[in-house]
Amino acid sequence: MEKLICDFCGSKDSEKNPIISGDKACICQSCVSTAHEIMVSTNKDPEEKKEIATTESKVTLLTPSELKALLDDYVIGQSRAKKVLSVAVYNHYKRIFKKVADDDTEINKSNVLLIGPTGSGKTLLAQTIAKHLDVPLAIADATSLTEAGYVGDDVENVVTRLVQAADGDVKKAEQGIIFIDEIDKVARMSENRSITRDVSGEGVQQAMLKIIEGSVVNVPPKGGRKHPGQDAIQVDTTNILFICGGAFDGLEDIIKKRQGGNVLGFNQEKKTKQDEIELITLVEPDDLVKYGLIPELIGRLHMIATLNEITEEDMVHILTEPKNALIRQYKKLFKMDDVTLEFTDEALLEIAKLALERKTGARGLRSILEDVMLDIMFDLPTYKEKTITITKEVVLKEKQPQVA
User: Which of 49, 75, 113, 325 is paired with 224 by a 20 to 30 Å CA distance?
Assistant: First the structure.
């Protein structure tokens, strides 16, 4: 009698792998076990399977108050902007990871527009959120972007940077954050559509619409123009949070004009900084359209947060209070050489004044400190077990630091 043969895998009947015969068909024990495993996997709840598939890329969901407390540790002031960003981030990741049974209502994502002067903390807010949620972050400058086919970066290259930030993990990138800075610099040249092509202005805004709203984008893994002929990667941007930032210089005049105020003329009262701060908080979508953003783009940036210009007092707090404050960093560097570093209150105030004069916001603080500390750090190893005190005169380069 001939040995039975499995019609599925071709194995012969044996003690270790017996074969069951039926009507004109045979199957071995090994194939039966494999079929059973496939059927059990197929019958699992879809949500359960999805949870398993996304376990590695799932982020720790913090409440809005926890997110704001986190931002408070790293960013000074800007309370309103922190609240807006915290709520937007919480709602964004909640809609991805929390599912409500028997409800097919689809929740759209809320992208964020941050409006504030240079150095007010727009980029730092996005970086802090991304770092502590452990999600990839890509930062792009809108001024380097152009419409496809023109000199510059394609808008899709921003998504490529996010995939690279996720170490090539597309699933992780699809839950990341993209921060596009200087969005005000791609405002179209006038409120009316231009006859000539505005490839770095309105053209960029049009190109951004699709990826911000959410769609499957084909992106080259190393960027499009420098590495042609690559196999494209498909990335779904539906669950990518977009945060756009810009200074929007002159927006206050548009708001004032809408409110009936006089922008030009000899008799108008001089605006104070406080007046400008209060005006910018009254921004409406129509003001942004007049500034030069297209309505379709504004419609995809649902949450608008305004940041105040940093004051002298804020500058001092930025130097000393955040977990990564510059003064703390320098003290740690000195401690590594067994040297104690101290700053007088007058020295900190003078550094803040110099930074304000440069009109670069908090960014100016590091370059000022680097300049002040250069000679001291050059000779740092020779000051072992001593205390160095930085005074106002040292900042102004009128005296040498006190060593005790």
Answer: 113
Q: Smallest Cα–Cα separation from 271: which of 260, 282, 283, 262?
A: 262
125 three-class SS: helix
* Cα–Cα distance for residue pair 285/294, rounded to 1 Å: 10
Closest among 41, 39, 7 to 25, alpha carbons compared:
7
DSSP state of 379: T
Digit-coded pLDDT (tens) for 16-52: 788 888 777 888 888 888 777 777 655 545 444 333 2
Residue 361: φ, ψ to 5°: 65, -150
Beta bridge partners of residue 186, listed in sequence order: none
Helix-helix angle 312-320:326-335, to 10 degrees = 30
DSSP-derived letter for residue 265 is S
The pTM score is: 0.74
Integer Cα distance of 344 and 318 in angstroms:
15
Q: How far apart are CA 270 and CA 314, in angstroms?
A: 24
